[in-house]
Amino acid sequence: MASNGAVTPVYYDVALTNSFGVPALAEPVLGGTITVTGGNIDVATNVALPGGAFRVRANGEMTVGASALLDASARRRELRGVLAANSGGIIDLSATGALSIASGATLRVDGRDAVGTIGTGAAGTIKLAGLGGVILDGTLSGRGPDAGTGGHFILDTLSLSDPGRDYDALV
Question: Nearest to residue 36, comparing CAs of 17, 8, 22?
Protein backbone atom coordinates (compact mmCIF):
# COMPACT_ATOMS: atom_id res chain seq x y z
CA MET A 1 0.00 0.00 0.00
CA ALA A 2 1.26 3.47 -0.88
CA SER A 3 1.83 6.09 1.84
CA ASN A 4 -1.40 7.87 0.84
CA GLY A 5 -3.46 4.69 1.39
CA ALA A 6 -3.81 3.82 -2.31
CA VAL A 7 -3.26 0.22 -3.31
CA THR A 8 -0.21 -0.30 -5.52
CA PRO A 9 -0.88 -2.84 -8.29
CA VAL A 10 1.32 -5.93 -8.51
CA TYR A 11 2.07 -7.31 -11.98
CA TYR A 12 3.38 -10.84 -12.52
CA ASP A 13 5.56 -11.91 -15.42
CA VAL A 14 3.68 -13.77 -18.16
CA ALA A 15 4.89 -16.29 -20.75
CA LEU A 16 2.45 -17.11 -23.57
CA THR A 17 3.68 -20.41 -24.98
CA ASN A 18 2.27 -23.60 -26.46
CA SER A 19 4.41 -25.92 -24.36
CA PHE A 20 2.27 -29.00 -25.04
CA GLY A 21 2.16 -28.63 -28.84
CA VAL A 22 -1.64 -28.36 -28.93
CA PRO A 23 -2.76 -27.98 -32.57
CA ALA A 24 -4.58 -24.84 -33.67
CA LEU A 25 -8.28 -24.94 -34.42
CA ALA A 26 -8.96 -25.94 -38.03
CA GLU A 27 -11.35 -23.00 -38.41
CA PRO A 28 -10.70 -20.26 -35.85
CA VAL A 29 -13.78 -18.39 -34.67
CA LEU A 30 -14.31 -14.99 -36.33
CA GLY A 31 -13.73 -11.94 -34.19
CA GLY A 32 -13.04 -12.43 -30.54
CA THR A 33 -10.73 -10.59 -28.19
CA ILE A 34 -7.81 -11.63 -26.02
CA THR A 35 -6.33 -9.09 -23.60
CA VAL A 36 -3.29 -9.91 -21.46
CA THR A 37 -1.80 -7.61 -18.81
CA GLY A 38 1.27 -8.45 -16.75
CA GLY A 39 4.81 -7.55 -15.75
CA ASN A 40 7.46 -8.66 -18.26
CA ILE A 41 5.72 -10.60 -21.05
CA ASP A 42 7.08 -13.12 -23.56
CA VAL A 43 4.86 -14.16 -26.48
CA ALA A 44 6.16 -17.36 -28.11
CA THR A 45 3.10 -19.01 -29.65
CA ASN A 46 0.54 -18.63 -32.43
CA VAL A 47 -2.62 -16.61 -31.89
CA ALA A 48 -5.38 -16.64 -34.55
CA LEU A 49 -8.25 -14.19 -34.09
CA PRO A 50 -9.67 -13.56 -37.60
CA GLY A 51 -10.92 -9.98 -37.57
CA GLY A 52 -10.49 -9.92 -33.80
CA ALA A 53 -8.34 -8.06 -31.30
CA PHE A 54 -5.15 -9.22 -29.55
CA ARG A 55 -4.04 -6.71 -26.91
CA VAL A 56 -1.03 -7.21 -24.65
CA ARG A 57 0.06 -4.70 -21.97
CA ALA A 58 3.43 -5.25 -20.29
CA ASN A 59 4.29 -3.27 -17.18
CA GLY A 60 7.92 -3.97 -17.98
CA GLU A 61 9.49 -5.40 -21.13
CA MET A 62 7.80 -7.43 -23.87
CA THR A 63 9.33 -9.85 -26.36
CA VAL A 64 7.51 -11.43 -29.29
CA GLY A 65 9.62 -14.52 -29.99
CA ALA A 66 10.87 -15.86 -33.32
CA SER A 67 8.26 -18.64 -33.39
CA ALA A 68 5.27 -16.33 -32.80
CA LEU A 69 2.55 -15.81 -35.42
CA LEU A 70 -0.05 -13.25 -34.32
CA ASP A 71 -2.81 -13.26 -36.93
CA ALA A 72 -5.90 -11.02 -36.87
CA SER A 73 -6.33 -11.09 -40.67
CA ALA A 74 -9.67 -10.98 -42.42
CA ARG A 75 -11.32 -14.24 -43.43
CA ARG A 76 -13.89 -15.27 -45.97
CA ARG A 77 -16.66 -17.51 -44.65
CA GLU A 78 -19.84 -19.00 -45.97
CA LEU A 79 -22.90 -17.91 -44.05
CA ARG A 80 -26.18 -19.53 -45.09
CA GLY A 81 -24.90 -20.21 -48.58
CA VAL A 82 -23.40 -16.74 -49.14
CA LEU A 83 -19.69 -15.95 -49.02
CA ALA A 84 -18.86 -12.91 -46.90
CA ALA A 85 -15.54 -11.32 -45.90
CA ASN A 86 -14.86 -9.66 -42.57
CA SER A 87 -12.15 -7.01 -42.11
CA GLY A 88 -8.79 -7.47 -40.44
CA GLY A 89 -8.61 -6.85 -36.71
CA ILE A 90 -6.09 -5.22 -34.41
CA ILE A 91 -2.84 -6.31 -32.82
CA ASP A 92 -2.01 -3.85 -30.04
CA LEU A 93 1.22 -4.43 -28.08
CA SER A 94 2.50 -1.98 -25.48
CA ALA A 95 5.25 -2.02 -22.87
CA THR A 96 6.44 0.44 -20.27
CA GLY A 97 9.92 -0.90 -21.03
CA ALA A 98 11.33 -2.11 -24.35
CA LEU A 99 9.17 -3.89 -26.95
CA SER A 100 11.06 -6.35 -29.15
CA ILE A 101 9.67 -8.19 -32.19
CA ALA A 102 12.22 -10.93 -32.91
CA SER A 103 13.40 -11.98 -36.36
CA GLY A 104 11.06 -14.75 -37.54
CA ALA A 105 8.03 -13.39 -35.67
CA THR A 106 5.03 -12.35 -37.82
CA LEU A 107 2.22 -9.93 -37.02
CA ARG A 108 -0.55 -10.10 -39.62
CA VAL A 109 -3.75 -8.05 -40.08
CA ASP A 110 -4.20 -8.57 -43.83
CA GLY A 111 -7.46 -7.83 -45.62
CA ARG A 112 -9.30 -10.26 -47.85
CA ASP A 113 -10.30 -9.95 -51.49
CA ALA A 114 -13.97 -9.63 -52.34
CA VAL A 115 -13.95 -12.00 -55.31
CA GLY A 116 -17.14 -14.00 -55.03
CA THR A 117 -18.04 -12.48 -51.66
CA ILE A 118 -20.30 -9.85 -50.19
CA GLY A 119 -18.16 -7.00 -48.93
CA THR A 120 -14.45 -6.34 -49.01
CA GLY A 121 -12.34 -7.32 -46.05
CA ALA A 122 -10.13 -4.31 -45.44
CA ALA A 123 -6.85 -4.79 -43.60
CA GLY A 124 -6.65 -4.02 -39.87
CA THR A 125 -4.27 -2.18 -37.54
CA ILE A 126 -0.95 -2.98 -35.90
CA LYS A 127 -0.11 -0.74 -32.94
CA LEU A 128 3.26 -0.98 -31.19
CA ALA A 129 4.23 1.09 -28.16
CA GLY A 130 7.42 0.80 -26.13
CA LEU A 131 8.56 3.52 -23.76
CA GLY A 132 11.96 1.84 -23.56
CA GLY A 133 12.23 1.62 -27.37
CA VAL A 134 10.85 -0.65 -30.08
CA ILE A 135 12.99 -3.17 -31.95
CA LEU A 136 11.39 -4.40 -35.19
CA ASP A 137 13.23 -7.45 -36.50
CA GLY A 138 10.10 -9.45 -37.39
CA THR A 139 7.54 -9.15 -40.20
CA LEU A 140 4.50 -6.86 -40.08
CA SER A 141 1.79 -7.36 -42.70
CA GLY A 142 -1.33 -5.29 -43.31
CA ARG A 143 -2.00 -5.82 -47.01
CA GLY A 144 -5.42 -4.93 -48.29
CA PRO A 145 -7.15 -6.35 -51.34
CA ASP A 146 -6.57 -3.00 -53.09
CA ALA A 147 -4.84 0.33 -52.48
CA GLY A 148 -7.82 1.83 -50.63
CA THR A 149 -8.16 -0.96 -48.08
CA GLY A 150 -4.62 -1.35 -46.77
CA GLY A 151 -3.81 -1.60 -43.09
CA HIS A 152 -2.78 0.95 -40.51
CA PHE A 153 0.46 1.03 -38.54
CA ILE A 154 0.83 3.03 -35.32
CA LEU A 155 4.21 3.32 -33.58
CA ASP A 156 4.53 5.04 -30.21
CA THR A 157 8.05 5.18 -28.83
CA LEU A 158 10.53 7.67 -27.50
CA SER A 159 13.19 6.78 -30.05
CA LEU A 160 14.04 4.92 -33.25
CA SER A 161 17.66 5.92 -33.08
CA ASP A 162 19.14 2.42 -33.04
CA PRO A 163 22.34 2.59 -35.16
CA GLY A 164 22.49 0.07 -37.97
CA ARG A 165 18.72 -0.45 -38.24
CA ASP A 166 16.92 0.45 -41.45
CA TYR A 167 13.38 1.75 -40.90
CA ASP A 168 12.93 3.01 -44.48
CA ALA A 169 10.19 0.43 -45.12
CA LEU A 170 8.02 2.17 -42.52
CA VAL A 171 8.09 5.53 -44.30
Answer: 17
